[in-house]
């Protein structure tokens, strides 16, 4: 941060590049929108061939005066070579990458007794290895361009607790792994080395239950789940994706320059009682 410069005033510098995986819809898209509104040049990466209708509506809301933009790139985070190529291209176009939100994730509800090794591996591949490789591919570019970047892993409160009655052993463990990963990467990348590399902050975000396409599918699979989850936190309701926009801005901007290796829990009090 420059001397005398207010952290919040220079929250996001206009035109700086951000990458959001899982940005075709849901939570990733809402967090991407927050960065665009603050002037960020945001690349939404997702395995879907084309983004959700929700993305088109977000695109229509982008005002040129903000100085930001929203772009969609199809990418499966499990394709590490393609991930590295795309990060390299984005960095080359923008003199680096300022921030990454890794929100791409999958969920599967299956009793632990029936889980196949193949399904466990699939879950960990996307929710853990995909997140790790996303951070690595971005950090390589941040090192190269000497960006003091910020990386946020979208974990979950499910990485800290078992959700009462929800048969999601592999998902919850994958989120616990991501919370721990952020601590280790923060340890390796946060300080600025003699050669000028580093200064990359790494944190995780642990949301409670939010209404997104992923969760609407859970509601279809488990009758009564919407009501159970609504009553399971202190607010007595589910979250909207827009309630995480502030967290995206906070974690990606100079508002959080001394925060690294942390896990930000925003769950309506779910894990607090
Ligand atoms: N909805 C919730 O209640 C909740 C709570 C806590 C954490 N989360 C986490 O938030 C993140 C976003 O979830 P959401 O609820 O918006 O779900 P969602 O299913 O609506 O969005 C997830 C996105 O990730 C993409 N994706 C999945 N696998 C991918 C891959 N291999 N490569 C690229 N993209 C891939 C999907 O296509 C989808 O667009 C996930 O990591 C999820 O675990 C969600």
UniProtKB/TrEMBL annotation:
Q: Which InterPro entries match?
A: NAD(P)-bd_dom_sf, Sc_DH/Rdtase_CS, SDR_fam
Q: Which domain of life is it from?
A: Eukaryota
| SUPFAM superfamilies attached to this UniProt entry | NAD(P)-binding Rossmann-fold domains
List the molecular function annotations (GO) for this entry. oxidoreductase activity, acting on NAD(P)H, oxygen as acceptor; oxidoreductase activity, acting on the CH-OH group of donors, NAD or NADP as acceptor
UniProt keyword Coiled coil, yes or no: no
Which UniProt keywords are present, listed alphabetically?
Answer: NADP, Oxidoreductase
Family classification: Belongs to the short-chain dehydrogenases/reductases (SDR) family.
Q: What is this protein called?
A: Predicted protein
Organism from which the protein derives: Hypocrea jecorina (strain QM6a) (Trichoderma reesei)
Organism taxonomic ancestry:
Eukaryota, Fungi, Dikarya, Ascomycota, Pezizomycotina
